[in-house]
């Protein structure tokens, strides 16, 4: 017994080193497994607060671009309103019955307070957390397209798994046909992402638009993603398809977080079916 | 608290802030962000191996990881070089035993302290990028990134190092 104690005493620094090193490696492996970095993330009180302070200084740098984006979106939405007017006029009376409407998605606005886009696994930090109803696995977009999926949530802050992350897989489809594929990133260029698993039957051309597929409960259908930059076929499959994003991922100011109100219902139904 | 402890605390907090506020957003040539915070290991007084440095280096790395959402890669790398720094220093100086009270990195010949900093920085960066990619197929990228980022980090460290040693 005494020998054991003296052995531990002699090697106490080495044992301390081994213990801490294995904790660090445990965190590393956990962060490489999709959706499991529960302990080490920037959504906590201290780092979220510091990033918020820094962002208050940097905010004016992207205000001009952000205003431009907002006014573009306003014009687009106003045009949509005008399109509907004609069909409303065709009725000779106006009936407003709120029971006719069903809200499927809610949107929460948030500000990006930290953004990485040059690393292997990129994350964003937002200034809204569980206090504002943000949960994990919600879609994050802005008017130009998709940005990512929320991951870790604290009371006031949340982190977002960016689409520029090698672990990210998002269901997308072609605008002009119903062929689905999944979106991933090969860690080369922050303006270009890759479309995988698209069947060869889908005829694609340079410049075709890619939108979200609506097969997952995270993103609604039809949110813009990007256009096809180039592609190559090999052995009757698509070897690679590069997509240029509509968004400039290096400068993102304000975003919207989408919550699917039917998510619970869909999930429980799917679970019930797979159990049977 | 004596003067040495206060100094170490200030350097610890200052380095984390500089790293996350400025250096993580440099993106020189696209992706080069120097890890200046490893200078903490070099500025820490040379003592016979002690648990305080091992704990501090782990906490330093983990703080950087928390801010940059990178799991535990910086913690693992910083901890490792904190553990091997005395053996490396011994082999650089070429002595089997060091007089701990008399040795300081600033009193060493310039070239020897440069070699010491070079080895530890390179090992640190290799572990960081190795754990970030975590795949043998990316070995080329890991080596290139390690090499380029190390050059940048070492230049920064040597500038600060020269500045401090002149002041003394």
Strand fraction of chain B: under 5%
Radius of gyration of chain B: 16 Å
Largest interface: A-B, 33 and 34 residues
Q: Helix/strand/pairing class of chain A, anyone?
A: alpha+beta
Taking pLDDT < 50 over at least 5 consecutive residues as the criterion, the unreliable ranges of chain A are none
Instruction: Report the mean per-residue pLDDT of chain A as an integer.
Output: 83
Cα(first) to Cα(last) distance of chain A is 57 Å
Q: Which H/E pattern describes the elements of chain A?
A: HHHEEEEEEEEEEEEH
N→C terminal distance of chain B: 23 Å
Sheet with the most strands of chain A?
Answer: 6 strands, antiparallel, barrel
Unreliable spans of chain B: none
Helix tally of chain B equals: 6
In terms of quaternary structure, the protein is heterodimer
Describe the structure.
The complex is a heterodimer of chains A (276) and B (168). Chain A is α+β, with helices and mostly antiparallel strands and 276 residues long. In chain A, 32% of the residues lie in helices and 30% in strands. Chain A has helices spanning 2-10, 12-32, 45-89, 263-275; strands at 105-115, 121-126, 139-142, 145-153, 158-165, 170-174, 180-184, 192-196, 209-212, 224-234, 237-245, 254-260. A 6-stranded antiparallel barrel of chain A has the order 1-2-5-4-3-12. In chain A, strands 6-7-8-11-10-9 form a 6-stranded antiparallel beta barrel. In chain A, strand 4 and strand 5 form a beta hairpin. The model of chain A has no long low-confidence stretch (mean pLDDT 83). Chain B has 168 residues and is mostly helical. Chain B is built from 6 helices and no strands. Chain B has helices spanning 3-21, 39-43, 51-68, 73-93, 110-133, 139-167. In chain B, helix 1 (3-21) packs parallel to helix 3, helix 4 packs antiparallel against helix 5 (110-133) and helix 5 (110-133) packs antiparallel against helix 6. The mean pLDDT of chain B is 85. At the A-B interface, helix 2, helix 3 and strand 2 of A face helix 1, helix 3, helix 4 and helix 5 of B.
